[in-house]
Specification:
single chain; Cytidine Deaminase, domain 2; 46% helix
Length: 245
């Protein structure tokens, strides 16, 4: 008890002195869990959550039922983690709820903090209305292009839940990688599959630690969407924003 109390105190002091700058995800998550589980060592639980969901973004984008599958995580902790993610989304998407249309640069600003720093290959789905305005976001961990059909199914389901007309797909890689032929092929397959159910794939963005590539900006996606894609494009290679954006 005393040892755990001292460790938690040191975590609080580190956070208070730095605002979290320089702290590992494990330490930040452990500190957060301390507020829902005050009298138990939560570090093993924090490790299990990070391993299961691939990082903080994956945890915050998961629902309570998924989080509670981790041994020792109860309803209070799942609610705290879900609430943290919801607040993050509300703050980061505030500018997208003013009625402004998403551009490719807006998409990158939105996606980068959610998918950067992942430890495993993942996908992200941004749902927009017919005017290109933000509706919802879902991240999908532990899927690669060999399970492309599953990615498309999840995208269609998320769009239906959000009553979306338009989606942006992001493919996040944990290591530096140029755009691959596999991504080009999957983007075109996804575009056709989504079009068959009345959805427009506005963009397919490849994110790696070093760069981001928008296939819409490269005019690679099939000529669908007309004015929607034209208004969305920022033109030119995208640059990863800093962590604070």
């Amino acid at each position: 008890m005393g040892e755990h109390h001292g460790h938690r105190g040191r975590l609080r002091e580190r956070y208070a002195g730095s605002g979290g700058e320089g702290m590992e995800d494990l330490d930040l998550l452990e500190l957060l869990l301390c507020y829902s589980i005050p009298r138990r060592d939560v570090r093993p639980m924090a490790k299990s959550l990070l391993e299961r969901f691939g990082g903080l973004a994956g945890i915050f984008d998961s629902n309570a039922a998924e989080i509670m599958e981790i041994t020792g995580v109860g309803e209070n902790s799942a609610l705290l983690l879900g609430l943290t993610g919801s607040i993050r989304d509300l703050v980061r998407s505030r500018d997208t709820r003013t009625g402004a249309r998403f551009t490719s640069r807006d998409a990158l600003r939105f996606l980068s903090p959610r998918l950067r720093g992942i430890s495993r290959e993942s996908f992200g789905v941004v749902c927009l209305d017919g005017g290109g305005r933000y509706l919802s976001f879902k991240s999908v961990c532990d899927l690669d292009l060999s399970r492309g059909d599953r990615v498309i199914d999840i995208t269609v389901n998320q769009a239906a839940l959000s009553k979306a007309d338009t989606v942006i797909l992001a493919h996040a890689l944990p290591c530096a990688s140029p755009v691959r032929d596999l991504d080009y092929g999957f983007a075109r397959a996804a575009d056709a599959a989504l079009a068959s159910v009345g959805l427009l794939l506005l963009d397919y963005i490849l994110l790696s630690p070093e760069e981001a590539v928008s296939l819409a900006d490269r005019c690679y996606l099939p000529p669908r969407g007309g004015e929607s894609r034209a208004a969305y494009r920022s033109l030119g290679r995208l640059t990863l924003p800093g962590p604070g954006l």
